[in-house]
Amino acid sequence: MGGAVSAGEDNDELIDNLKEAQYIRTDLVEQAFRAIDRADYYLEEFRDSAYKDLAWRHGNIHLSAPCIYSEVMEALELQPGLSFLNLGSGTGYLSTMVGLILGPFGVNHGVELHADVIEYAYQKLDFFIKTSDSFDRFEFCEPSFVAGNCLEIAPQSQQYDRVYCGAGVQREHEDYMKNLLKVGGILVLPLEEKLTKITRTGYNSWEIKKIIAVSFAPLVLPKHRENGKIRAVPLPTMFEVRSLQDLSRIAIRQTLKKTLSGTWPLPQRGPRRSSTRLKRRQEHLDSALLVNRYAFMSRLIPGPMDDNSNQSGTDEEEDEDCHGVGECEVGEVEDESRRREGSVLLMEAPANLLRENILRLPLPEPLKMYLLYYREK
């Protein structure tokens, strides 16, 4: 399915074409699409086809056509802080775009039938986090994927604000899908050859809207049984109690964005111009330089994977911690006393700069004290 939109020379031109054809209609969806290069989710030998409006499949790995993903993103009406469930999460391309909109207080879960595809999705997610400047531009809700058949989720499982199914659904499974949705939530799925938007308006009331004609492979029916019962797929935990360190990291990143750059500019693109790929790449690099001050400082703030409770870890553990927050991008830190002061990762040179900027921020004094001086015992 696809082919409704002209092929692009690169990701930006593909998005230009999707906008011109009215598949992308809102700023949030446009920003999410521009932030992630579709070609990064292709195998290297197939990257030349990444900017065509066509679906792509290689073995168990599958990507829907860009026009389908854009219609799905628009129909989901995503907002920060919502919970999202992706049934047939595949490469994680859609889940990662969704995570850019949900923000740090959202929930982003996926269920995928094939374990090798989940491994592929985590590889692509890791590549995005470590290499993309978009990771610093957005507050990201990182997706979590579990292996299993999406028709084997326990009936008493948690419900979500937004649900998408990436495989063809027959009428006999429509009610099953609806039960995964909270009241007020939106379900988008291919239902009998039509991409369909279902809004749950009450406990037993629904609004149904047909979007476009589509052709999806049907859902794979469950095969495995234990004592005649369906094997339940455990979903990830919906809510986790955030540490004070994690909340502080989120607060200071958001404040740094506003303090250093005013209103933080999200990725956008003006009118299409005829230009070479080399010029587009240079424009991208120039844009990256504009955010370097923020990216450099915000990556000194530890992420949720950092653990200050273990101050005597091994060299291997410290190296993993370094990669977890992107510290290695600004320089190797050899000594524990140089690397940490309380909950803020520091190096000798930027320590004073970071301290001065923290003191200028409009944060409560206890939070400043925590960021600057606190060390877990």
Structure summary:
With 377 residues, the protein is of the alpha/beta class. It is built from 14 helices and 13 strands. Mean pLDDT is 77; it is low at 262-266, 273-277 and 280-349.
Shape: globular
Give the mean pLDDT. Answer: 77
Low-confidence stretches: 262-266, 273-277, 280-349
Please provide the count of β strands: 13
- The CATH superfamily label of the largest domain reads Vaccinia Virus protein VP39
Number of helical elements = 14
Radius of gyration: 22 Å
**Helical content (DSSP H or I, runs of 4+):** 25-40%
CATH fold topology of the largest domain: Rossmann fold
**Major beta-sheet overview:** 7 strands, mixed
Give the structural class.
alpha/beta
Structure commentary:
With 377 residues, the protein is of the alpha/beta class. The termini are far apart. 38% of the residues lie in helices and 17% in strands. The chain has helices at residues 11-20, 27-35, 66-76, 93-102, 115-131, 134-137, 174-178, 244-261, 277-290, 292-298, 315-325, 336-339, 348-360, 365-373, and strands spanning 56-58, 61-63, 83-87, 107-112, 144-147, 160-165, 181-191, 194-202, 205-213, 225-226, 229-230, 340-341, 344-345. α2 packs across α4 (93-102) and α8 packs antiparallel against α10. β8 (194-202) and β9 form a beta hairpin. The longest helix is centred in the C-terminal third of the chain and has 18 residues, at 244-261. A 7-stranded mixed β-sheet has the order 5-4-3-6-7-8-9. The protein has a two-stranded antiparallel sheet with strand order 1-2. It has a two-stranded antiparallel sheet with strand order 10-11.
